[in-house]
Every structure is written in C-alpha cells, then in structure tokens.
Amino acid sequence: MSKYRNIVWFLKAMQEYTRGGYETASRNFLAKDLSVNLDGQSFMITGANSGIGKATAMAIAKKGGTVHMVCRNKERAESAREDIVKEAGNNNIHVHILDLSETRKVWEFAEDFKSKHTSLNVLINNAGSMLNIREVNFEGLEKNFAINTLGVYILTKGLIPLLEKNTEPRVITVSSGGMLVQKLRITDLQTEKRMFDSTMVYAQNKRQQVVMTEEWARTYPRIHFSVMHPGWADTPAVVMAMPQLYESLRCRLRTPEQGADTVIWLAVSPAAARTPSGKFFQDRRMVPVHLPLAWTRYSREKARALMVRLETLAKRIQPSGGRSQLNSPAIETTGSLQDCIKKAA
After folding, report:
1. Which three-class secondary structure state does DSSP give residue 211?
2. Strand 285-286 and strand 279-282: pairing?
3. Quick one: pLDDT band at residue 147, thresholds 50, 70, 90?
4. CA 5 to chain centre
5. Which of 100, 190, 298, 318 sits most deeply, having the most CB atoms within 10 A of its CB?
6. Phi and psi at residue 123, in whole multiples of 5°?
7. pLDDT score of 221 more than 90
C-alpha cells in the first residue's frame, strides 16, 4: 500500500506542485482577495528570514502589517529585516531569536511574548526541519519532531490566549503535500524503533500538523485555523534538505513568492476567513487530506490520542514556574519522556 501511495502521490505532485501547477491554479485567483490594508494588525512568522517565510513577511509588510520575525540566526534575520524595511517602507518589523529545536525555550518565548505584547492577529507556523541524520535536542527529543510537531504545538497553544483577544484571529501552519503518503502514527514519535528515513519522518510530522490543526479548530472556534501545502518551491530549505530533488526539478520549482501565495491568502484575505476552520489548502482552495484508496484515514480517537501525547510531552518540558495556558486532561508525567508517551496511550 505504501508503494501505491508513493506512486499516486508522485504523479499528483508532478502535475500540481510544480511551477506549472501554480500557474494553472492562479488563473482562478481573484486579485481583490489580497487588496487589503493591514495597518494596525500584527503577524508572527517563524522561519521568516528566507524562502517562503521571508516572502510572506515582505508581502504583509507591504500591506502595512506589523511583522514579528521569529528566526534562529540573528545575523540572517537582521539582514532579512533590512531588506523588508527597505523594500516595503515599513519600519514595524521586529526580530525575535528562537531555535525551535530547543523545546523549553519555545515555552519561554511564548510566555515572554505574551507579557510584552497586547495583540497578535495572526500566527504563521512556517519554520520546519528535515535533518537527514537522527539527532536529539537537550531534552532528548528527536529534532525533526521537536521542530515540526512539538515546537508548533507549544508555540501555538501558548499564544492562543493572546490571539483570542483579537477579532478574527488566524493560525496558519505550512505543512507539505508529502504528508499524503503517511498514515498517522501515534507511537514511536521519536523514531526510535524503526529505520530513520528523514523524508518519511518529515512527512509524518506534516501529517501530525494536519491533525493538530483539525483538533484545534474543534477546540478553539474563535480562531480560524488552517494548514497548507506551498508546492515545491526554490528555497534554501529545499536545496539543503533535498539536493537531488532540487537538481532534478530546479527548472520546474515555484518561486518563493508563488510558494507563499496561499500562506498570504490564508493570513489576510476575507475570502479565506469565510472558509471552514481546520482545513488543508493548496493554491487557495481546500483539498483532501487523504489520497483516494490510500488507507490513511484515522479515527477521532486516534487524533485525540496524539494531542494527549503532545500535551504530556509539552508539560513535561515546561520550565518550572511557567504560566501554562495549555489545557488538556490531567495525565501522569512522572518518569522518562518515553514513559510519558506510553502512559498517554
């Protein structure tokens, strides 16, 4: 079945995820959807110093929005900020340094941001990772999972109280169409029991992002949640993580701006706000989260189980004395992180 999924997905990808796929889809785009004034609105974008994140930050800055760039590297972040300020003519661009692989610091960042800012209209979870070798962070978590799944979980849940103070708040998570080849897996979140295949680990993390978005939409109806696939774009992340794909498809890759288009549409368009919360998007339209006949569907109980496990891990790593805003059923969190995962089953 996995072979079938991979074949069907690749055929779909070659038609839809390339630059040609974007150009075909964009014929139906409405220019008025992005004709908005964002003065007085604030946006947080992770991984905003390059690629899709920078293109998103640039577009929002040009429309007058206040942008909070959350980046790992200070030098590259400041350089990107200078570019955005110069081109957009908008000085309300702020740099925050955070390595999402350092899970405890994600907690600390969310709490610090809430203490210093009274408003956040939109959170864009753009930063991602595809490390080709299994590595663990200080807390003993596999780094791809820590960045792509648990970091997104903690940052989003931590900022929900601030988002809910605003009118029509939104959360957009940049996922990947690669998640279509993966069934939801709620055991072995750290990829300890199976061969480490970075591409499949990444796809599994992206499937987990889809599930998180669906569950958040049910739990927090005041916020519009969405998750999206940007297509295959020519970005530094693609060059670094998938050099063979980059070399073979370089002439067919989307530009960062094309990859960012649906992120921007979801973040600012009134039309996007009218779509149901919790859905998966590609090129400004809702698309299925499962391939036909691919046996990747999951029950609501399994989705809830994932959320419980993430909550368990998040609370386990929470700094002592932290002002947690995460609210889930009480779970015993004594013992090792691996024990915590098992006890949440």
Report:
1. helix
2. antiparallel
3. very high
4. 23
5. 100
6. -110, 130
7. yes
Other beta carbons within 10 Å of 146: 29
Rg (CA), the chain: 19
Tokens of 142: 């596999």
Can 298 be counted among the known catalytic residues? no
3-state secondary structure of 13: helix
- For residue 207, is it left (φ>0), alpha (ψ between -120 and 50) or beta? alpha
* Residue of 17, 202, 220, 298 marked active site: 202
Tell me the residue ranges of DSSP E strands in the chain.
Answer: 42-46, 66-71, 93-97, 122-125, 170-174, 224-229, 279-282, 285-286
Q: In the prediction, which pLDDT does 248 show?
A: 77
| Domains of the chain with bracketed CATH | 2-299 (3.40.50.720)
If pLDDT is split at 50, 70 and 90, which confidence band does 6 have?
Answer: confident
This prediction has a pTM of 0.91
Count how many residues are written for the chain: 345
